[in-house]
Amino acid sequence: MASSKDILATALRQRVGDGTVYVSGDLQGRIFAELDGRLLHRLDVALAANPSPTKFNNLGGNSLWPAPEGGPFAFNYPPDGGAWYVQEGINAVPAQPLADGFGVQKTIHLVNRKGVEGEMCYRRVVTPQETPLALKYGLKGLAYRAEDSLTLREPLADFLLAAWSLEQFDLAPRTFAFGKLAHPRLHGEFYSDPAPYIDWMDGCFRFRFEANERLQVALPETASPEYVGAIVPENNLLIIRKICDYDKGMRIDIADNDQPRGPFAECDAYSVFYGPDARFFELETIAPVRQDGEGRTIGSRLVSETQFYQGAIEDLKSLLVGEFGFATALTAE
Description:
The chain is mostly beta strands. It has one domain (4-331): Beta-galactosidase, Chain A, domain 5. It is built from 5 helices and 20 strands. The protein has helices spanning 4-7, 45-49, 88-91, 132-136, 313-324, and strands at 12-16, 19-24, 30-35, 38-39, 62-67, 96-97, 103-111, 117-129, 140-156, 162-170, 176-181, 198-201, 204-208, 215-220, 225-232, 237-245, 268-275, 280-286, 290-291, 297-310. The strands form 3 sheets. Strands 6, 7, 8, 9, 11, 12, 13, 15, 16, 19 and 20 form an 11-stranded antiparallel β-sheet that branches. The chain is globular. It starts with a helix and ends in a 9-residue tail after the last helix.
């Protein structure tokens, strides 16, 4: 029977802090992190060992997707009006190691819901980083920065393309997500209303994973978000995700559904997804669409950082409050 070590045996790897960062070309360019011998990301070992040749292989890790998912420019709905799907370049095509850095790249053919086709270069450059805050708070830690880019071979009209990084983790009891914004406003027009599970204080929010249905919230760039993250008490784990370089361009909604006010209404920068039936949650970062002087899409670039800390829950909460300015009261269980 395969194990996570077997699945990641061919992945690129670098030691950093108290763990290891992996970049797996065989798993379509996904990033994984291991801290103190424990894999932090979700990894569906059984599916990775025997992937489906036709269905979406949702394997976990940190994956790079083209957005938007839904709406008139969608990549997850075909031009013929068929059901949700994932195109082969994202779902199955492996990525190759970079010749000039720690990371991977590949060429992907895409078609959007309007039937416009394009070829793009998918590239991920990963930089593992030390976590001095871990030592300060008596914790173990590691971090990495990912520069993700999707670049079209030729500029295209009637085509939107945004780099969208979805980082998946196993759902565990008492887990909650959180974030901080200068202007407390979330975008929740995805599934059911998430408001009953959101608590606010001093520009910070806590998203309680207590519903029996899928929920999602997004943080629009206009709200000046600082970060999103999660605390997983069962694993004594704190996760922080932040965008490091706010690239210029046109921001869009990344929603699966057709947004009632169109694809440009909310200008998403971050998102948190929670699926009790799927048994995982996601911390997501989204980049704007880059266009040329004629309004044609040329690509998208996202630079984000993920930090992991492991140790006593009270020490993790002290770090979150002391170093990231999170509201103390929202850390109470």
